[in-house]
Amino acid sequence: MTSTSGVRRARSNDRRRQLIDAATLLFADRGYPHVSVADIARQAGVSAPTVYRHFEDKQALLYDAVRASVDDMETATASAHLDRADDPAEALALAAVRLSISNPQSTSLWRWSGQHLSVEQNRDVVRRTRDVLRQWASAIGSTRPDLTERETMYLAGAVLSVVGSVVGRAVRTVPLNVEAELLALLRRILQLTPSDAEPLAQPVGIDTPSTRRDEILDAAAELISRNGFAGTGVDEIGAAVGITGPSVYKHFPSKNAILMAIGQRSATQLDAWAMVAYAASPSPEVRLRSLVDTYVHVITSSPDLIVALTSGNVLSGDPHAGELVASQRRYVARWIQLLTEYAPERSVESTGLVVHAALAIVNDAERLPRSTARPEFAARMAYLMKGLLGV
Fold first, then answer.
1. Whole-angstrom Cα distance, residue 96 to residue 338?
2. Global pTM?
3. How far is CA 332 from the centre of its chain?
């Protein structure tokens, strides 16, 4: 017979999961900074005091939401019995696709949440995510004994990026057989051999003069990439370049303006490299390869782009953010147009999914902290992206 305390505990756990699910949907839709506890309460159909009975504050709710998403990944991995499958890599692909279709946030929530979590919380999330990826890598290695352990980890990370980037976009906007599309992409990834990557040539030909304004942006991007937007103060930014916090305001009216300028600078750099790629060859394949190389160069050589991608939702209510978003969309549209010209048999919707998945491979790898820099990292990222794009 179930005790009264047991019933209460079950109800409390159900309520916590209801609040976590409501918060996750709102965080994904609006961005963490633009969601209040009152919004979460309304979404869940409860009062704000009810939320506070289960969670200390919004940040604690985010942390539990991220942990729940990792829980789902761990459960799905264990349920797939990868160590007993006839084809462990295929079993992994099926399990990852089905998890993402049933719960898209399970494979994507960790992407942008890190900047809002504490150092200890981030360590916990990264550790558990890596543990799951090691199990995925082991499954890949069982099918591909020709690969080193490090190579299987590269492929496991790419699997997570592909399913995490594609599903949420696909189920909302495009008339595709999502499961079939994803499986085709994962099977392509799982056939790649990262050690085949050619060294990534350093792009040359664009001068970037440095001013005091650029020094402030350099320092801000570095600090935000380490501590998050909310965890970085104007005084810290000023100190990093040898000036006071108030002196920073001579160059930028607000911290939001600094973040906007970082995004604009990275967008301008990508546009400039795109023009170089277009001028170099009329071939869609050659241009795509060049776009991959320069994109990987930009995101791995400076924190600007990853800061813009990770902290961009802070600017979602800013009246000046529209042009930055439009510039980012135009840049992605270049990739989609080139891949459409190169592989016209694909539908526009399918082509868009492939492009976003390819970009996610390096974006996610840059978001997930690494203990040491790997000299082959950039080359292997470019190789995986080109492999997924088919170029």
1. 29
2. 0.89
3. 15
> At 373, is the secondary structure helix, strand, or coil?
coil
The answer on pLDDT for 29 being more than 50 is: yes
**Contact partners, residue 337, CB within 8 Å, separation at least 6:** none
Contacts of 60 (CB under 8 A, 6+ apart): none
Encoded tokens for 147: 């690969």
pLDDT at position 136 over 50: yes
CA 96 to chain CA centroid, Å, is 16
Pairwise CA distance, residues 59 & 117, whole Å? 7
Smallest Cα–Cα separation from 132: which of 164, 108, 156, 110? Answer: 156
266: buried, middle or exposed (CB in 10 Å: 19+, 13-18, 0-12)?
buried
Instruction: Give the three-class secondary structure for 273.
Output: helix
> Residue 158 CA to chain centroid, in angstroms?
11
The residues, ordered by sequence, that sit 6+ positions from 66 with a Cβ below 8 Å of its Cβ are 109, 110, 113, 117, 121, 125
At 77-102, the pLDDT tens digits run 999 999 999 999 999 999 999 998 88
Residue 206: CB partners within 8 Å, gap ≥ 6?
Answer: 269, 272, 273, 276
SS3 content of the chain, % helix, strand, coil (to 5): 75, 0, 25
Contact by Cβ (8 Å): 271, 327? yes
pLDDT class for 157, splitting at 50, 70, 90? Answer: very high
Question: What residues contact residue 240 under an 8 Å CB cut-off, 6+ apart?
Answer: 219, 220, 222, 223
Q: Shortest CA distance to 124 belongs to which of 134, 137, 114, 133?
A: 114
Model pLDDT, residue 372: 54
Residue type for position 314: V
**Tokens 């990222």 map to which residue?**
381
Structure tokens at 193: 């051999």
Provide the 3-class DSSP secondary structure of residue 242. Answer: coil
Contact 230, 113 (CB under 8 A): no
Question: What gap in Å lies between CA 216 and CA 366, rounded to an integer?
Answer: 22
Mean pLDDT of 252-278: 92
Residue 260: count other Cβ atoms within 10 Å of its Cβ: 21
Contact 355/159 with Cβ under 8 angstroms?
no
Q: What is the rounded CA–CA span in Å between residue 311 and residue 260?
A: 10
